[in-house]
Amino acid sequence: MMSLMPDDEIRPQTRNPSPATTMDAPTKPAAVPTLQDPHTAQTADGPSPWMLRLVVVGLVLTALNLRPAITSLGALLEEVRDGLHMSGSVAGVLTSVPPLCFAIFGIMAPRLARRFGPGAVVCAGMTAITAGLVIRPLVGGTAGFLAASALALMGIAVSNVLMPVIVKRWFPDRVGSMTGLYSMALALGTSLAAAVTVPMTSALGGSWRLGLGVWAVLAALAILPWIPVVRDRSGAPGQPAAQHAKTPALRITRSRTAWALACFFGLQSTAAYITMGWMPQIFRDAGVSAGTAGVLLAVTMAMGVPLAFVIPGVATRMKNQGPIVVLLGSCGLIGYAGLYLAPAAGAWAWALLLGISNCSFPLALTMIGMRSRTGAGVVRLSAFAQSVGYLISIPGPLLIGVLYQHSGGWELPIVLMAGLMVPQMAVGILAGRDRTIEDEC
Fold first, then answer.
1. CB 276 within 8 A of CB 153
2. In CATH terms, is domain 47-440 a member of 1.10.260.40?
3. What is the C-alpha to C-alpha distance for residues 82 and 326, in angstroms, rounded to an integer?
4. What does pTM read for this prediction?
5. What is the spatial distance between Cα 262 and Cα 269, in angstroms, rounded to a whole number?
6. Which of 390, 181, 136 has its CA nearest to residue 273?
7. Spatial distance between the Cα atoms of 378 and 298, rounded to a whole number of angstroms
8. What is the mean pLDDT of the chain?
9. DSSP letters along 10-75, please?
10. In degrees, to the nearest 5, what angle opens at C-alpha 393 toward C-alphas 390 and 397?
11. Domain boundaries, the chain
């Protein structure tokens, strides 16, 4: 698996890079060389304010589209299963497709970003999401549905990896606040899709195909702000050439912190995708209506909207993020206990607690930015932690589906969910220690 990870750093983009133009430090004014192009002279001091605002808009719209393809399917999973004649095991495979695609295509993100630039790759990712969401409702079989879903998830995968990179590159002095902003937008898009997919499907005539396909409109909007960003490369800060010139290649597999962060990312992803894929069904089997089950999932996801903005800011002010890991994990354990003992009676409380627990995702993204001193290191750590992490998370949703089908209930799957929370807390404590991968490599 490790042979898939790129060993080379980002290659130079210019012949004579300036030390000031690194990905991990704000761009400083540079002397204008002779025969400088007028446009380049205007952008030598860094990106213009309107370009920075455009990148912010792009980050927010991109983050809004990183989960609706998944949570909208979770809300309509029973209807999709009936429409495509899926068994419980096949539905488990379907819920495992997101982390599989994220692991496979996430590995490609650093090489693509090195060749085309992070903004261009994210723009292409939004295009892939749009195409996948348009095609998915039109196919008539399970194989075609999985292929179209994989196309959309490919776009999500590369964008997942490159979000911390873009933040580090364009906003090196505001990593916490910008990570919080796009994490909040990601949580908002997740909860919005979970909340409105079922009623919107009913309003559109009850067709689950229309209910899933309508999210392509939001994805198409996210393409627009990246187009001028990609075209105006001269104003992009932090060209990676200088970073490559002064930073040796990292053997990231030698870093214990990188492995701990990858395991933490994988286990929190396992919990998140089990929640998004199966929690509505848990509530529906407990006697909750389909509409209410979708709203409960939305509540779980909505908890990430304010907390995803708050947690990164708090985490960046702490040298050790272990206490936050323990707090979030404890909420998850209580939520799973509630699902086991009284899934319907305390449904709203369990949804809230599991929503708090799922905020381990923005915490993991924040730690990715904090565990490396350089922008190039963030690229490699982000790709490593997310790709390995998503590989770790693949069996979880599938195993839950198999256990549910063969045990005839949710008791055993819920015990497994709670059991996975304990190692998540342990590796999260290790990942939260105050050190960097450069020190360990």
1. no
2. no
3. 40
4. 0.70
5. 10
6. 390
7. 31
8. 80
9. PPPSSSS--TT--TTSPPPP-PPPTT--HHHHHHTT---HHHHHHHHHHHHHHHHTSSHHHHHHHH
10. 130
11. 47-440
As a whole number of angstroms, the distance between CA 360 and CA 338 comes to 20
Contact call for residues 24 and 146 (beta carbons, < 8 A):
no
pLDDT digits (tens, 9 = 90+) for 165-192: 888 788 877 877 888 888 888 878 877 8
Please tell me what DSSP assigns to residue 343.
T
Q: Which two tokens mark 2?
A: 């490790």
| Whether 72 contacts 94, CB under 8 Å | no
Distance of CA 283 to the CA centre of its chain: 25
Could you tell me the sign of the dihedral formed by the alpha carbons of 213, 215, 221, 226, in that order?
negative
Q: Can you tell me which residue has the tokens 């190692």? A: 423
Q: Are 233 and 421 in contact (CB under 8 A)?
A: no
Give the CA radius of gyration of the chain: 21
On whether the CB atoms of residues 132 and 168 are closer than 8 A, the answer is no
How many Cβ atoms sit within 10 Å of the Cβ of residue 439?
11
Q: What is the DSSP string of 68-107?
A: HHHHHHHHTHHHHHHHHT--HHHHHHHHHHHHHHHHHHHT
Rounded Cα distance between 90 and 66, Å, is 23
| CA–centroid distance for 428 within its chain | 17
Give SS3 for 155. Answer: helix
pLDDT tens sequence across 429-438? 999 998 888 8
CA 247, CA 17: separation in Å to the nearest integer?
13
The angle that helices 322-341 and 360-370 make with each other, rounded to 10 degrees, is 160
What is the DSSP secondary structure assignment for residue 239, as one 8-state letter? Answer: -
Residues written for the chain:
441
Assess contact for 121 and 405: CB atoms under 8 A: no
